[in-house]
UniProtKB/TrEMBL annotation:
Protein name: Bifunctional protein FolD
Gene: folD
Reaction it catalyzes: (6R)-5,10-methenyltetrahydrofolate + H2O = (6R)-10-formyltetrahydrofolate + H(+); (6R)-5,10-methylene-5,6,7,8-tetrahydrofolate + NADP(+) = (6R)-5,10-methenyltetrahydrofolate + NADPH
Quaternary state and interactors: Homodimer.
EC number of this enzyme: 1.5.1.5, 3.5.4.9
């Protein structure tokens, strides 16, 4: 192993520490803490764990975190009513509807209904559009966590050839847009690969920075990595033996890369830290 570790756990801890002062300032000015409400529809076990982790992290940061649990039988109209009520609630600064939603509910209609100023997930078309034109307000938490992790480790992205594997609305596309932003953490030359891309290993071999978000365990092999490249692994999968792994074969890639994220302890903790950061920013804009 020659690569240095991009330590998401420690970095997220530092960010949470920094948020404490801003949370206190919101409390002073608004007379209440920043508020984050997560809406969980149905009983998908993975979503249940994610939402619980978000609730715990919010509480630890002094944010009033609440989870609205709705049955899997909830209709789209009922869910839209819940979103409307949260939009109108002055104590709620951030709203997050956990995805995926049960069949029969159109996620686009639900996301479109969230007030853009409370859309701390950064999924609303208005926020996606602002990011696309270089005026970011709320960006999706996982890609935002990736750029913050790189910035805090002093990894230079400017002018680098960045390859993003995956084109999802939650990770791949906003990741590409963030890396493309002018200045600070952006200014990369960005290529996005997806399921129809030809010869992905050849494209990855050109990458100074690789962000893997394909959702396939061990998809990226060590001999795809350019020596000295920076490797960020967004994937998280459970192996049959119960251990966790990412989209990249860590043991191989870490022999070649200069920096690499571990799984777990890399991108995951950063996602939650960015959700808290977006929530505090929403509360600050709300007058706090
Ligand atoms: N499902 C998977 N990732 C996310 C996320 O970042 N936010 C929400 N709301 N749902 C998700």
């Amino acid at each position: 192993m020659s690569a240095r570790i991009l330590d998401g756990k420690e970095t997220a801890r530092a960010i949470r520490g920094e948020l404490a002062g801003r949370v206190a300032a919101v409390r002073d000015r608004l007379g209440r803490p920043p508020g984050l409400t997560a809406v969980l529809v149905g009983d998908d076990p993975a979503s249940g764990i994610y939402v619980k982790n978000k609730e715990k992290a919010a509480g630890a940061a002094g944010i009033a975190g609440e989870v609205r649990r709705l049955p899997g039988s909830t209709s789209e109209a009922e869910l839209l009513d819940v979103v409307d009520a949260l939009n109108a609630d002055p104590k709620v600064d951030g709203i997050l509807v956990q995805l995926p939603l049960p069949k029969g509910i159109d996620p686009d209609r639900v996301i479109d209904r969230i007030l853009p100023a409370k859309d701390v997930d950064g999924f609303h078309p208005e926020n996606v559009g602002l990011l696309a034109i270089g005026r970011p307000r709320f960006a999706s938490c996982t890609p935002l966590g990736v750029v913050e992790l790189l910035r805090r480790h002093g990894v230079e992205v400017r002018g680098a050839r960045a390859v993003v594997l995956g084109r999802s609305n939650i990770v791949g596309k906003p990741m590409a847009m963030l890396l493309l932003q002018k200045g600070s953490v952006g200014d990369a030359t960005v290529t996005v690969c997806h399921s129809a891309s030809r010869d992905i290993p050849a494209i990855v071999r050109e990458a100074d920075l690789l962000v893997a978000a394909v959702g396939r365990p061990g998809f990226v092999r060590g001999d795809w990595i350019k020596p000295g490249a920076v490797v960020v692994d967004v994937g998280i999968h459970r192996r049959e033996d119960g251990s966790l792994c990412g989209d990249v074969v860590f043991e191989e890639a870490s022999e070649v890369a200069s920096w690499i994220t571990p799984v777990p302890g890399g991108v995951g903790p950063m996602t939650i830290a960015m959700l808290l950061s977006n929530t505090v920013a929403a509360a600050e804009r709300a007058g706090g």
